[in-house]
Amino acid sequence: MTETVERTRSGAILYDRSIINQISDAHFGPAGWPHAEAVGGDLGSGGRGNTLFVGNVPRQFVLRHYLRGGLPGKLIRDLYVFTGEDDTRSFREWRMLAKMAEFNLRVPRPAAARVVRHGPLYRADIITVRIPGVQPLSAVIAAGARPDEFWAGVGTAIHEFHDAGVFHADMNAYNVQVDDRDRVWMLDFDKGRLRPAGPWQQQTLERLHRSLRKVCALRPGMHFGGREWNALLEGYFSASRSA
Q: What residues act catalytically?
């Protein structure tokens, strides 16, 4: 992966020349692409409306503008305190994804990241390569029952991330995604970190469990319960024992 940083009038752009050989501020908005569409989704999987699919098949990209969540997001929607380019959310996530790609983990390949300065504050965006044929785990449990082997595979995949020291700050039923070969991918590593083993591993599993149960509460008849979760845990801890 070739990391290049270019200065702009109001900040900087970090990108991989092997994916995008020319980049400008225009590429961080829908007008800079021949095709752009908002990422929608059932059961709350569309996020905060800050994500677009851009570009054309066969290679499409995902463009995401960083937004604050919770109460801070109602007051200051998309501004963050600037303490240096390397500490911005977009540059950190770009480099986190690049490092995980080196570990052969299934994550989106980072293409470009941007920082736009506003005095002591900044706004940020990131562009990743779109993964074909994936759907969130929330959609999987809505579509139909899956065997224990599937759920064990989800647990094994999560353990692969944890074994590499990957902490996901928001592991939920939307950021854990499954492709048409039942391979598990993980998205959205804003605030993600590489950490030594610790209690955070159990905590992220518990966060995912809460998210799945919350999705089940949104609609009757979802295909997830104690049996599926136990199969996931069996896959996770079986991988841990054989590591």
A: 170
User: How many domains, in total, are found in the chain?
Assistant: 2
Q: What is the distance of C-alpha 117 from the center of its chain?
A: 24
- Name the nearest CA neighbour of 159 among 237, 104, 230: 237
Residue 6, strand partner residues: 13
In this structure, are residues 212 and 116 in contact, taking their beta carbons and an 8 Å threshold?
A: no
**Tens digits of per-residue pLDDT, 45-85?**
555 568 999 998 778 999 999 998 766 556 788 999 999 99
Instruction: Let me know whether 12 and 107 are in one domain.
Output: yes
Considering the domain architecture, whether residues 57 and 96 belong to the same structural domain is answered as: yes
b/e string for 75-85 if b means 16 or more Cβ within 10 A?
eeebbbebeeb
Structural domain of residue 220, as residue ranges?
135-242
Task: Look at the pTM and tell me if it is higher than 0.85.
Answer: yes
* Cβ count near 27 (within 10 Å): 22
The two structure tokens encoding residue 84: 């240096």
Tens of pLDDT, residues 149-171: 999 999 999 999 999 999 999 99
Q: Which helix (H) or strand (E) holds 156?
A: helix 148-163
What does the chain come to in residues?
243
In this structure, the answer to whether residues 125 and 8 fall within a common structural domain is yes
What does the block give as tokens for 238? 């079986």
